Fold this protein.
Amino acid sequence: MEFQKRSYLLNCTVDPAKRDLLAGLRAEHLAYILSNQDKIIYGGVIGSADKPPEGICIAVRADSLAEADAFASADPYASAYSNICVDEFQQRIPEKYPGQLAEVLDALAADAKKTTTR
């Protein structure tokens, strides 16, 4: 069986007092993102396009929670964050493969049936 990397969601909150740092770090941040595209599933800015960013959200593939946390901490923007939250992420939508959500629903129905027959 081949080992598959897990997905992790990095939710990084920008410290309002450090928002001004982002402009000076942007080139380094983008270079970091470009050099790690093979790990990134998707990512983007949290907040309205006409206001300073409230945060950054990036989904990455990594071997462990520690590796995903290290990825977030190594981002040049990390010095402007007040909080970095890294959690394992289970993609459901869009489905990774046809029938994925139906399988989850079937499993829930089976669990409910077990509970009611006890």
Observations:
- Residues 44 and 57 are 6 Å apart (CA to CA).
- The radius of gyration is 18 Å.
